[in-house]
Design brief:
Length: about 260
Amino acid sequence: MSYFEEDFEKVRRRDEERRRKRRKDEDAFEIVEEVFDRPTLMALYDLINDGIIDRMFGVVATGKEARVYWAKNSRGDDLAVKIFLKETSDFRRSIIKYIDGDPRFARMRRDIRHIIKIWCSKEFKNLKEAIAAGVRVPEPIAFRENILVMKFIGDDGVPAPLIREVPPGDPEEAFGTVLEYIKRAVLKAKIVHADLSEYNIMNWNEELYIIDWGSAVHITHPQALEFLRRDISNIVNFFRKLGIETPSVEDIYKRLIREIP
């Protein structure tokens, strides 16, 4: 092959790679382009360009604050891509109490775009701290603007069920596990989930994963202990419905706060 032919072949391969990448990006955007604004799409593009996301699929969970999409990376690993909604004023009002008073986020502008970005980074940070404390949560991978990428808990695009849908096979053991996770989060990570219930604990092959950590606050937050008592109450009430005997909410709460330095 001549030098000219070799150069031509290199150019052809480069152009084909560019077209392939453009098709991949277009396929990924096609899933969300009719729903989200340009800054969100640009943040998604950055995650694709950085090799964090290879392909996006459909929505697997929706809520008042976010939509969660199933995605894959270039190795074929399943990802959960949580995209926080910016256009809902109710969401802004509901989350501000979990940010105000948290010393980790003392300097915050009040425009909605910045608030949602802080909320996204807050969940990423809380997940990291929970894992370091020994709490089982989805592994956080990256975030950009209002997009959080995590390891997918489930199989082939089907998320793990919540414990309210598939209760643990051994409720007594599961109750002890959840209380231990609450304790580790408070004493080691210095955070309180602040929105814990059967609606954000997944049961994946009898392993419990606590999700939705955007609400979690530092223990110095003015309402941290109030949130802690509410979390404990929600968990006690749910497991009592499964037929197990538990200590009182107040006993669990007092024992835990006595251990806080």
